[in-house]
Amino acid sequence: MTKSQKAILESAKSLFWKHGLKKVTVEEICEQAGVSKMTFYRRFVNKEHAAEEILEAILEDNLRRYSAVMSQNKGFPEKISEILYLKHQESKNISKDFINEIFKEDGSALSELIQKHTLKSYKALIADFEKAKKEGWVRADLKPEFIIEMMEVIKSKMQDENFLKMFKSMDEAIMELSNFFFYGIFVKR
C-alpha cells in the first residue's frame, strides 16, 4: 500500500467515524489526506469503496484478535473480559450515523460485507460458547440459536433511537449492551 493510499484510508476512517459515510465528501477525505482527487480516484471508485476496504480490514483484524484471545489458556470469564476491552477500544468515537449506515440492510456492498462478517463471527462465537459449555463456564442448556437471536437484538438496538438516547455516546451504548449480554444484571467478578 502506498503512502497516499494509507493517508486516504486513515483520513476516510477518521471522517466516517466522526460524521458517518453520507455526510463526508471525497473532497474532505482528500483535503485531510493531503492528496488530490485524481489520486483518490486512481485507487478507489468512490467513498463507499474506501469504506469497504476500511471495514474489511477492521472486521478481519477484530476477528483475528478475537480468535487470538479465545485461543489463550485462560478461563472463559477472563477471555470475555479481554474481548469486552477490545470491543471498547474498537468502538471509541464511532458516530451513530456511521453505525446506522453500515447496519442498514439495503443490499449495498457495505451491507453485504457486514452480513458476511456477521455470519463468520457468529460461527466463531457459537463454537467458543460450545467449548465453554463443555468446560462448565456456560449453562449446558443454552441454545446456540438463542445466542444468535440475542446478537441480532443487540444489533437492532444499535439503530433504535429511543434506546440510544439513554447514552452519551455510541461507545457507551455498545459497552452497555455487551456487558449486559455477558454479565446480565450481576456485578462482574
TrEMBL record:
GO molecular function: DNA binding
Keyword entries, A-Z: DNA-binding
SUPFAM superfamilies for this protein: Homeodomain-like
Chain ranges of the HTH tetR-type domain: 2-62
Keyword Lipoprotein: no
Gene3D superfamilies given in the database record: Tetracycline Repressor, domain 2 (1.10.357.10)
InterPro entries: Homeodomain-like_sf (IPR009057), HTH-type_Tx_Regulator (IPR050624), HTH_TetR (IPR001647)
Pfam families registered for this protein in UniProt: TetR_N (PF00440)
Highest taxon above the source species: Bacteria
DNA-binding region: 25-44
Protein name: Transcriptional regulator, TetR family
